[in-house]
Each structure stands twice: as structure tokens, then as C-alpha cells.
Write a structure and sequence with these properties.
Helices cover 21% and strands 22% of the residues. The chain is of the alpha+beta class.
Amino acid sequence: MPQKSNANLHKANKAKNDEFYTQYPDIQKEINAYLEYNPDVFRDKTILLPCDDPEWSNFTKFFAQNFENFWLKKLISTSYANESKNYNMNYQPTLFETESPKYDKKKTCIKWKIFILDHDTNKNWKIDIDDLERDYLEWDWDFRSEEVKKLRDEADIIITNPPFSLFREFIAWIVEAEKKFIIIWNQNAITYKEFFPLIMNNKVWLWVTMDSSNRWFQVPDSFTQYHKIENGKKYAFVAWPVRFTNLDHWRRHQPLQLMTMADNIKFSKHKDIKENGYQKYDNYDAIEVSNVDAIPSDYDWIMWVPISFLRKYCPEQFEILDANDYRIGQNWKAVNHDTAWVAHHITCCGENVYRRILIRKRQ
């Protein structure tokens, strides 16, 4: 199932079918975790949702409904023009759109839309989703347009599921403006050469509120690549989705509970550790650790660990080291090339089977 679901994501990437919408309970669980760590994290902040149509996006619905609870200053949401989407669909505007005073039959398919929430428009003494004001942007380009760039510069926090086909560009777009953000993508983004240095230098980290290693995302009705239909809605299954963020949270500072090297060798549930212990490389002073829960608590030098380590990484406990062009032993090498700054295991079947990251315990 995970292979099939990842294939679905990559097909979306290739075809630029980029609209994967997070479910409301997942958003609620995630945002509550930030609020538990810092109740004022959103107070007096302007939030930009740059790829989120309120008719689909639960992010827009969630923050609009909680505008007053979070003491927000402003909520801005923008959505693609229908004709800019790279798949065929017969577009039918909803009542939410047609009943707006700004509705324009000619513009609705060719212009990006913008939704702003910052005051009580209907005079009912509360600010919520019914107060969203909608309009059309001048251009039909994506988040890289000058119009949306100005919205980015105005915002304090950017939150969205970025277009899967434009992830690298989207990250650069955020980092350039030095904004706070929460975005979702597959954990393979960790290996991108443009992205891994941000993680290594503690400028971006992971936040995983998912109860399992996979999640369902709602997709538009026009999608042909999906896995189930529930209550008349289509859903696609994506394996290993993670949140990338630079907003602080409690889990980031929760150290791993680990056993000593001797106890791991004696009690580990992993066959390779129990039978062979910790293998050391011929040309490099580091040990191989094939599973995160097998990291020894009493080893002070360099270790190669799986990229899944980043889901439980505590910067006060470990530091992430750069991977350079070293050849390590007969069957291992570290690489720094166009796709990753991590180590790759070489097997008889080819490269890139197991990805590894260099870490060391903080002294």
C-alpha cells in the first residue's frame, strides 16, 4: 500500500495534479500542539494560506472558525485559477462563490482568487468564516507572482500544502522572506540538497502528529488517481507525510529514551544488532545504526542513522553533521550531489536503497 500511495504522489508531481487537502481533524490536532507549547503563537499574527481554496481547504476553514480564539490579526487565503490547473475538469461555481458581491462569471475561471478575513463584515458581533471577503487577483500565475509575493511579505506565518510539483521553489520562496511556516510534504524532501542544510543548521524541523506512518488527503472530484471514495468525496493515500516547520513545539525538545550499547546488543529486537553488534567502517570513524531505537545512549562519536531519525530529533540531545565525499568501507559511501546530502547504502541491486544521516551525541 505505501508503494502505491507514494506512486500516487509522484504521479501528481509529474502531472502537476497538486491539490491534496489535509483533513480537518489532522489540522486541529497539529495546531493544538503548537498552542499547548505557546498559547500566543498566533496572537496578532497575519496568516497566509497561499495555495488554499476555502471551498476545499480545511486550513482556511479551521483558521477562519478560530479567528477570535487564536487572536489573529488577519487571515489571507489564495487559490488557483481553474484554467491554470493541469487537468481537465468541468468547473461549476458553488453558491459560496456566486452569492459573493464580487462574483464575476468571466474572471472566475481565469483569475486567482483571494479571500481576506480581518473584521466582522456581517455585523453579528463575531469574526468567523461567514466574514470572509473574496476578490480576484490581477494575474493568473501561482504563488511566485508579484501579487502573492506582496501577500507573503505582509504575512507573519505561512501555512499550506504546497504544490507537490513545485516544492523546491516553494521552500526557496519562503526562506527568501524569512517567514515562519508550517508545510506538508513527503519525508523524501529531507534528502533534497536545497533542503537538508536547513534541517542540519536547525532552521527547519519536523513535526509529526500523525498516529501512523500514512494519511488520507482529500482530492478534487476530477482526480483519476485516488484510493477511495467516502461520503461522495475522493481520497488519496500518501505514505510518510510530515510537517516541516520553524515554529517551536514541545516534541522537538523531547529526548529519545535510549539503551546503552551493551544493553542494545543483549536485548535489542533487531536481529542485526543482536547478532553482529555495531559495525564500524574501515575508512571512517563511525558506526552503522540501522534503527532509531537502537541508537546507543553511551556512544559519543559519529553514527550513521536512518532519515526517520529526524522525526524524533531533539537538538539538545544530538547534532546533525554534514555528509561529505568520503568512501566508507567496501559497500558504503557518503555523497553530496544534486539530490541529497546524506549517505547511501550500495547493494548488488544498485544505489540509494537505504539513506543515512551523520549524527553525534551532544557533549
